[in-house]
Specification:
This protein is about 55% helix and about 10% strand. With about 400 residues, the chain is mainly α. The protein has three domains: about 100 residues, no CATH class; about 100 residues, no CATH class; about 180 residues, Orthogonal Bundle (hpI Integrase, Chain A), CATH 1.10.443.10.
Length: about 400
Amino acid sequence: MERTTNSVLFFIKGSKPLRDGTSPIFLRITVNGKRSETSTGCSILRQHWHQKAQRVLRSPKVAREINDHLASCESRIRMIRTKQQDRGRSFTARSIMNEFHGKGAKDQTIVGLFNKHNSKMADLVKVDHNSPSTLRRYQDSLNHLIRYMKSNYRTDQVVIGDVDHEFLEGFEHHLKVKAGNQHNTAMRHIKCFRKIVRYALSTQLIDIDPFMRFKMTIKPVRRDCLTQEEVKLIQEKRFEIPRIQIVKDLFILQCFTGLAYVDLSGLTKENIAFGADGSPKSIVVDRKKTGERCFIPLLPGAVEILNSYSDHPVRQLKGKLLPVPSNQKMNAYLKEIGDLCGIKKALTTHLARHTFATMALSNGVQFEVVSKLLGHSDLKTTRLYAKLLDDRVITEMDAFSERLKM
């Protein structure tokens, strides 16, 4: 069994005294070479402090009071250390210091901190209309962590101070191997956990960031899109089944506006600017994901779709502009549409957004304008769509090269 070394030290910190000429007395706990420091709340004239004895040796009026306080602190620390050891887990300088300051063990566990974060986020979803999908991602990340800790540590009550590089590498291995997540998905879950660790750092629950030597990388993903010919093929296709026809219209509307699913499903009459003739002219919506305001002038094809649902019962019953099904159902129906149209690309609501961006860039709309239309808060995000355009250029040039051989 590995031997644990620990010590308690009182000392005068810094060379610059306080305004009254005294210097503060600090307490340092060291366990296996790792330190945690805090102020004792006492101060004394530097010449009255005896470092070897770690006590005040002069000024008898205050010496007894301060020395009694330091002895009490030392005694409490030793009791906390013994209690933590009796709990059946290894103690750390930070875990002792946290308990010394009255921070409960529950508040120091990964699960406790994560639940506290998720509870606050759930409140913000109700008040600030934050995306519920973001909250679900954090909840999923916590569930993955619980399964990992139970599997590797035989408990889900691991304290945040015990998180180190080995813990993070083990979590990444668990996400990829046991949970079957792709690299980028695993990194997203680890990113959620990193936010909890940063909170622990900011509240001094831990002293050292375990992510300092942990590399988080995102692998580039090829984002597909439809060609204008494929969009036209779907647009002109008529379906006898109402649910399929509705989803087709919604998908084409996304291709003409670049609206994300969550923004499409939340559209109301208040989001539409109408012209003098009563026809929709533009959409104004605050993006759920970024909070950025989008002003989207409507293309004729988009106006036609919006007008076709002007008398749909969903407007009277729910106040919504369009009968949008759940994202899961919509993507399932889009798969049927793709099969019926002979399109091999996987049709999704997000593919429509990619398609809008690429068609706009291909037809001369400026990069910054496309970014504004999409409601991006960072031009780096829009560059992902510009990469789509680069791939399209290569494809078109290959085809052009073949035609020149004729």
